[in-house]
């Protein structure tokens, strides 16, 4: 054999061996990397045995180094993540970034944990990876925009939000993010447009809280006041849906976390997911009164009384000291026309929870409706004594006094109500009207000023009061 | 005729150089360049319940107390450290005067305050006695009405206080601090306003003896705390504000010493349920710069009962100078509130104390930690040490040398918004055990 040919053969064999060896080394390194992704098992003694068993099974599959080791590590990470073991989950995800580098779920899930703890620089890197790997998965891009915003990298965040809007023009959270950036940059007109879009696309769940400020900056005080006056306390923001993370919760064994997630899903308008999560919570902890309560309330809201009733009954059985369970069960019976049972439940609730202001209030309402006004007043006062920072019981007492022509006593109750709850709109309006009708011009002016400060007094009510003042005193206040 | 050049040597050269390079390149995992570290492991809890001895001070527990804030100061300047407190349900500001060593007398210094949630001593009129700044929410439970107010209780020198309303009909006020922000020699105010859907952070420029002019710094709901200090090292006071609700951000407003402020976010979590609950300033690493201690433990809603989250805990933002901060986790504490820096064991290293606002309302665990000491080993590793399981549901803690021994005592306030109403406290003094 000629020497050059021999050398060539040797070279090729050497190269092939090197590549083969390298591939073997890589495979071993990957197995090692996957194994390194198994965190020390936390104390699971207080958890359902099924969780420990699933974690152990995943761990064994990872450590076997078999074909599905990477998949098992992914499952392990998600199990830890779903159950709030974030340190352990992040160890898994850290390893998966190397072991399964083409899968966008791992950088996304890892970034979500880190971003949740405020580690925004790390989260930016990972959300970018996830967005590159899964360009169609909008939540990764949204989160990237959000973390850039938190890191004060406003131009980059705006670019990401605009990219999202090119893919999905009706993405309310991207409009919200842009709106916040424009606010920070002082572009109030741009912010208004973006936030109005976010509000309209989310059925007013988003941006409603920022818009009054923007309107005020643009001197549109009327619209600002209208929005401010819409509700006593909305707090209706809900996080953007994130199916990759949301579906993980179905592997959660923590009843309380499931209840929180169910509440959040309901708050965000996803009733189906909320019911799924609460149902899982119920299966895990059939004796959890708060879970039955939440389920009962969900069914009450959709007027599914036959479904709500067993949950509320179970709630009162499991936690007879939980007054809200009795109140809602009693009201349910009243709503479906079962008056006697409603009264019985209310009485039992009061016997079990005599210190409940809500039950006392309910009792007072019923006594008032039955015309037993003295007893009603006593019950209203008891409710107020038990919860002295709410004006509603005293307002009800005032109404009784007015109906009986005892105006002075009614006024005194309203004044007490305002000490408890200074902006209570009906009390403000009535006291203003009373001052006008009794010719107390200075007092009327003071009350009208307080009415003016309270956006929850409607525009038409305010106008009527101003008209009444003008008619009575000959000039506007 | 020259022999045609064989390509073999070149091939071998390419192989010799290229293969290792190729292998090296392939071996260099692209993800390694961008592979952030996992979260640190949780610290092992150490029982230290014998370190402090609790003792109720002031009035007895009636109903279920709402002590939203406590702080310590020698209000009457008699050499004995006193306690100030806000009872938000009784609408009172309280002075727990230490009349003699270890004996406290409770005096209402502010009545009809409408949900006071923060009291801060400061000599606002320069007459040598301490006046009291009071943040009044108007109503503690969720409410977006403009029912907040800023009140100064003016001290007549004999600890008789006259209320002066500085700001009213405004978004619910949660915190306020006094500082000369524009260098005119007069104390101005910084005000944090939670509101509910709309809130604010503002500074109020002193324009007269009791007159102030407002300057808005931020219009976001959820302000919980404001702190003032020179955080950027330019010798001008800066402002830090903690914003909760869905924002979960800490904002720094860099002051120019003339009343100008430039704001930006120095921390933000994208977890809308992070539960920001309190900040305070202290130089934790002893580098001469104030750092930010920060707790997240607010777990009200959206479940039927309030409760802890796995991410609740305490952290610090290391001040790296120039307005830059670096986040460090200190440790987990479900329901964490009111983080303060205090050298508990007098080893020269500032430790961190925080309280917990929740008992376990899900009734799974009767032994829920209500106060935690994160012991600093001097290298900024914090070992979580349990100081107390009871009383439960503490929302505020302050430290001070109330015994005159040089050892820090602690004072806590109990805040109970949810049954079961058992294991209650109002104001508790925690003395170091001998």
Description of the structure:
Chain A has 477 residues and is mostly helical. Chain A is built from 26 helices and no strands. Chain A is elongated and about 125 Å long. With 434 residues, chain B is mostly beta strands. Chain B is built from 1 helix and 29 strands. Chain B has one helix at 8-27; strands at residues 46-47, 52-57, 67-73, 82-87, 92-100, 103-110, 116-122, 131-136, 148-155, 161-170, 173-179, 188-193, 200-206, 212-218, 223-229, 238-243, 249-255, 261-268, 276-282, 291-296, 313-321, 324-332, 336-342, 351-356, 371-376, 382-388, 394-400, 409-414, 427-432. In chain B, strands 1-26-25-24-23 form a 5-stranded mixed beta sheet, with no helix packed on it. In chain B, a hairpin with a 6-residue loop joins strand 12 (188-193) and strand 13 (200-206). Chain B is globular, with a radius of gyration of 26 Å. Residues 22-31 of chain B have low confidence and may be disordered. Chains A and B meet through helix 1, helix 4, helix 5, helix 6 and helix 7 of A and helix 1 and strand 18 of B.
Distance between the termini of chain A: 115 Å
| pLDDT < 50 stretches of chain B | 22-31
The major beta sheet of chain A can be summarized as: none
Through-space gap between termini of chain B: 104 Å
Most extensive contact: A-B, 88 and 74 residues
Question: Mean pLDDT score of chain B, rounded?
Answer: 91
Instruction: Count the DSSP helices of chain A.
Output: 26
| Percentage beta strand of chain B | over 45%
Q: What is the global morphology of chain A?
A: elongated
As a whole number of angstroms, the C-alpha radius of gyration of chain B is 26 Å
């Amino acid at each position: 054999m000629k020497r050059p040919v021999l050398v060539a053969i040797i070279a090729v064999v050497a190269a092939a061996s090197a590549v083969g060896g390298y591939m073997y080394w890589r495979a071993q390194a990957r197995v090692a990397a996957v194994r390194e992704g198994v965190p020390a098992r936390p104390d699971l003694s207080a958890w359902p045995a099924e969780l420990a068993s699933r974690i152990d099974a995943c761990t064994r599959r990872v450590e076997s180094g078999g074909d599905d080791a990477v998949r098992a590590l992914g499952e392990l990470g998600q199990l830890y993540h779903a159950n709030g073991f974030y340190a352990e989950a992040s160890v898994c995800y850290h390893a998966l970034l190397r072991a399964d580098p083409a899968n966008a779920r791992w950088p996304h899930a890892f970034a979500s944990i880190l971003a949740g703890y405020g580690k925004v620089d790390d989260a930016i890197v990972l959300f970018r990876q996830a967005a590159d790997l899964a360009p169609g998965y909008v939540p990764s891009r949204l989160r990237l925009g959000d973390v850039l915003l938190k890191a004060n990298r406003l131009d980059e965040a705006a670019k990401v939000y605009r990219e999202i809007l090119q893919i999905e023009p009706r993405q309310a959270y991207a409009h919200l993010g842009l709106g916040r950036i424009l606010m920070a940059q002082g572009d109030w007109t741009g912010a208004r447009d973006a936030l109005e879009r976010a509000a309209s696309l989310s059925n007013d769940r988003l941006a409603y809280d920022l818009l009054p400020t923007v309107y005020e900056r643009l001197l549109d005080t009327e619209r600002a006041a209208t929005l401010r006056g819409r509700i006593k306390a909305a707090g209706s923001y809900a996080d953007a849906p994130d199916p990759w993370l949301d579906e993980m919760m179905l592997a959660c064994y923590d009843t309380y976390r499931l209840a929180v997630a169910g509440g959040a899903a309901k708050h965000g308008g996803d009733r189906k997911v909320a019911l799924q999560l609460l149902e899982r919570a119920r299966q895990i902890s059939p004796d959890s009164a708060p879970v039955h309560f939440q389920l009962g309330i969900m069914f009450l809201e959709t007027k599914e009384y036959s479904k709500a009733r067993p949950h509320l009954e179970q709630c009162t059985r499991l936690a007879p000291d939980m007054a809200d369970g009795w109140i809602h069960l009693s009201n349910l019976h009243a709503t479906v026309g079962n008056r006697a049972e409603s009264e019985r439940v209310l009485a039992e609730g009061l016997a079990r929870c005599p210190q409940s202001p809500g039950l006392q209030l309910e009792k007072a309402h019923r006594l008032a409706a039955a015309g037993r006004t003295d007893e009603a007043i006593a019950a209203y006062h008891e409710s107020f004594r038990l919860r002295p920072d709410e004006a509603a019981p005293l307002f009800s007492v005032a109404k009784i006094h007015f109906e009986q022509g005892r105006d002075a006593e009614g006024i005194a109750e309203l004044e007490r109500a305002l000490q408890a709850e200074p902006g209570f709109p009906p009390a403000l309006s009535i006291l203003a009207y009373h001052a006008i009708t009794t010719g107390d011009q200075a007092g009327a002016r003071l009350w009208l000023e307080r009415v003016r400060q309270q956006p929850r007094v409607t525009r038409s009510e305010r106008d009527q009061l101003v008209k009444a003042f003008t008619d009575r005193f000959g000039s506007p206040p | 005729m020259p022999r045609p050049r064989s390509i073999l040597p070149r091939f071998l050269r390419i192989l010799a150089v290229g293969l290792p390079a190729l292998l090296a390149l392939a071996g260099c995992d692209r993800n390694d360049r961008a592979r952030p570290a996992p979260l640190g492991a949780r610290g092992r809890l150490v029982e230290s319940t014998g370190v402090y001895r609790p003792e109720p001070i002031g009035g007895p527990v009636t109903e279920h107390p709402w002590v939203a804030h406590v702080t310590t100061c020698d209000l009457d300047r008699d050499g004995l450290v006193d306690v100030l407190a806000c009872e938000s349900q009784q609408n009172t500001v309280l002075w727990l005067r230490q009349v003699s060593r270890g004996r406290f007398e409770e005096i209402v210094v502010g009545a009809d305050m409408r949900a006071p949630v923060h009291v801060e001593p400061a000599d606002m009129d320069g007459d040598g006695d301490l006046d009291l700044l009071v943040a009044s929410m108007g109503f503690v439970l969720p409410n977006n009405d403009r029912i907040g107010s800023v009140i100064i209780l003016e001290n007549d020198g004999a600890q008789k206080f006259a209320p002066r309303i500085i700001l009213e009909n405004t978004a619910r006020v949660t915190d306020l601090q006094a500082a000369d922000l524009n260098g005119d020699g007069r104390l101005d105010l910084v005000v944090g306003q939670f509101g509910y859907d709309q809130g604010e952070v503002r500074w109020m420029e002193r324009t007269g003896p009791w007159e102030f002019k407002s300057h808005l710094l931020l219009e976001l709901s959820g302000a919980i705390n404001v702190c003032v200090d020179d955080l950027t090292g330019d010798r001008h006071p800066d402002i830090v504000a903690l914003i909760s609700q869905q924002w979960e951000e800490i904002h720094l407003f860099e002051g120019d010493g003339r009343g100008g402020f430039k704001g930006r976010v120095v921390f933000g979590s994208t977890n809308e349920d992070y539960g920001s609950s309190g900040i305070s300033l202290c130089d934790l690493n002893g580098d001469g710069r104030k750092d930010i201690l920060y707790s997240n433990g607010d777990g009200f809603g959206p479940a039927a009962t309030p409760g802890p989250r796995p991410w609740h805990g305490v952290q610090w933002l290391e001040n790296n100078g120039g307005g830059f901060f670096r986040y460090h986790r200190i440790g987990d504490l479900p329901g964490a509130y009111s983080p303060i820096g205090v050298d508990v064991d007098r080893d020269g290293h500032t430790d961190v104390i925080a309280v917990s606002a929740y008992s376990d309302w899900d009734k799974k665990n009767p032994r829920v930690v209500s106060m935690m000491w994160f012991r600093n080993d001097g290298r900024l590793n914090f070992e979580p040490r349990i100081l107390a399981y009871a009383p439960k549901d503490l929302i505020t803690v302050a430290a001070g040398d109330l015994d005159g021994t040089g050892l820090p005592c602690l004072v806590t306030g109990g805040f109970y918004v949810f049954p079961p109403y058992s294991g209650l406290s109002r104001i508790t003094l925690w003395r170091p055990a001998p």
